[in-house]
Please model this.
Amino acid sequence: MTDTEGYVDQAMAGLAEPQPMYKALRESTPVFRSPQAVVLSRLADIEMALKRTELFSSSMDAVDLGNIRPLIPLQIDPPDHAKYRRILDPLFTPREMARREPRVTELVNEMIDRFADRGECDFHEEFAVPLPCTVFLQLLGLPLEDLDQFLEWKDGVIRPEGESGYDRRHEATAPAAQQIYDYFERAIDDHIASPRDDVLSSLIAARIEGEPLTRHEILDICFLFLIAGLDTVTDSLDCFFVYLARHPDHRHQLVEQPDVLPSAIEEMLRWETPVPGVVRVATEDVEVGGCPISKGERVSPLLGAANTDPAEFPDPELVDFRRNPNRHRAFGGGPHRCLGSHLARMELRVALREFHRRIPDYEIKPGTELTYTAALRSVESLPLTFPVPT
Amino acid sequence: MSRVCVDAERCEGHGRCYTLAPDVFDADEVGHAVVLVENVSGDLEAQAAEAEKNCPEGAITLTAAENRR
Model:
């Protein structure tokens, strides 16, 4: 086995520091055929694949999450994709997210209250997991007591037990998927009966050329929100706090120069790339960088490799909170650019600001071995210790 | 003096421009970029240049405009 293959194998199992793998791939085999997919690691190829959706489709054939219809809008390609984004994008603009910020600030502080006096916490379990899930429930207008149920379903489709490959995912994920559909059926009924100021009510009220969305369309949007909105912010929080715990100088910079926060978040998104890659499927026989790809083959643009490509980023290994410009692709690009990017940025900004205001110094509990999860980069547990605030 | 142009075909609503250069760009109802001030100089020109080099889709261009007196 070559080094590169070894790296890719490890990546499937979750890598603490994937950046050396990105570099090795880019320098040795920028178009790499792994058993699961053809992996792209050069920024130019990745950008091309993300933009050219007619060649590299994001359809249901790319990833199986147990769903029985395409997830909207992720698994619908242009031109139909645009009609859904026209009604979804307005619900997730930076301005709309700013409106939600005060409530998220309260929520973050309530969570910190629960462990601040203890001098330690499991950051993953007590903060990174419940925060995005609670925000999601509030945003959609769902009961907060459904939190644990949601977490179980999310893991059931993203990390099905005993199954890590691409091909046998359907059986492993279908039961949880069915429960998700059933749950949202009931939630939609409830919101039709009593509309309120939340995203689910907005979806019910939305019109495309005068027509409301069908029941199936609303379900397929809700399903996507659940898998796209919960795990990814958890992953980002885990990655960022591990980084900051291990790099006190960077952490001090955040505490002492609060104005650096927005660009620090962009830089940590670049460096950590919590969603390291996406998956597409070739719609015809194509060639990328001299490598033939057959119609129907899976293709994986490695966003993390794009984000460390020296063709775009001078000194890509240097983490500089004031890096400028920073055209990172952590949220992808092209028509399928992450719909929730502004929600994610708002959650991350509030979480980092409030946490460091209240707990500026912390470290990973000595002796801890961090285990990263596959595909999406969270850690299984992140014990932090810190001085009790006086 | 520069002239600011957004290629609407390329813009995907990343929102970097109106975040980094709020005096030059705004968002439309879906969060795509709208140019507020087309001809920019001084501080506005500097802001617009920041947006141009940070746009992930390369959708913004600044071109030298004739300085009319």
Notes: The first strand of chain B starts at residue 2 and ends at 6. The mean pLDDT of chain B is 95. The beta strands of chain B are 2-6, 25-27, 33-35, 39-40, 60-64. The radius of gyration of chain B is 11 Å.
